[in-house]
TrEMBL record:
UniProt keyword Membrane, yes or no: no
Sorted UniProt keywords: 4Fe-4S, DNA damage, DNA repair, DNA-binding, Endonuclease, Glycosidase, Hydrolase, Iron, Iron-sulfur, Lyase, Metal-binding, Nuclease
Bound cofactor: record note: Binds 1 [4Fe-4S] cluster.
Domain HhH-GPD: 38-185
InterPro entries named in the record: DNA_glycosylase, Endonuclease-III-like_CS2, HhH-GPD_domain, HhH_base_excis_C, HhH_motif, Nth
Binding site for [4Fe-4S] cluster: 187, 194, 197, 203
Cofactor: [4Fe-4S] cluster
UniProt EC number: 4.2.99.18
Gene3D superfamilies hit by this protein: Helix-hairpin-Helix base-excision DNA repair enzymes (C-terminal) (1.10.1670.10), Hypothetical protein, domain 2 (1.10.340.30)
Coiled coil, from the record: none
Protein's name according to its UniProt entry: Endonuclease III
HAMAP family in UniProt: Nth
UniProt keyword annotation of DNA-binding present: yes
Amino acid sequence: MSKVAAKAFITALAEANPNAESELIFHNNFELLVSVVLSAQATDKSVNKATEPLFKVAPGPKEMAELGEDGIAHFIKTIGLWRAKARNVALLSNQLLQKHNGEVPSDRTSLEALPGVGRKTANVVMNVAFGADTMAVDTHIFRIGNRTGLAPGKTTLQVEEGLISQIPKAMLRPAHHWLILHGRYVCKARSPECSKCNATQWCLYPEKNLPEKELHTKRSLS
Ligand code: SF4
């Protein structure tokens, strides 16, 4: 996809969701970080359900460290991978207290040094908490980048780099949210709802114009 088409594609997504923002519920940078760590392979809805009571008890790293791994586990057992996530949240809370004065750091190196924090989580925190022009590539954005021709790549890093080079800098920060919402609700994994998509004109997906029923049948046969 050309850069001109990429800009038009992203502009169309922006028009569909002008006030797009994270669907995770948090009240400070620490809660954002914990929510993103918990959201790996889990829905935002399930994370919000677990964190509402958790953050009442532990809104900061001190309280979370005091709660400890077992205490955290008690709140997050409904979320996939809860054992490892409880351990990581306890460890990262301690690390924030010991190395960062209880604050969430803003730089990639420090963020990725925290237990349970990889490149994607660091990108989300840098983008949402600190206004950095990062692009966190989750399963939805990886699919859209490849399916539409916006930023094809075999790895999430290739797609991330492609999106950063394709999307105008001024649009990069909110583009993360526009793309995620588009992937969740329109350009879905199994059956993209192309008839509801206002970026169809610029999308390079070869099957985009098939009626949805036919598209669904074709995909289930493949
Ligand atoms: S036209 Fe279809 S495949 Fe292309 S971005 Fe829109 S929903 Fe996705």
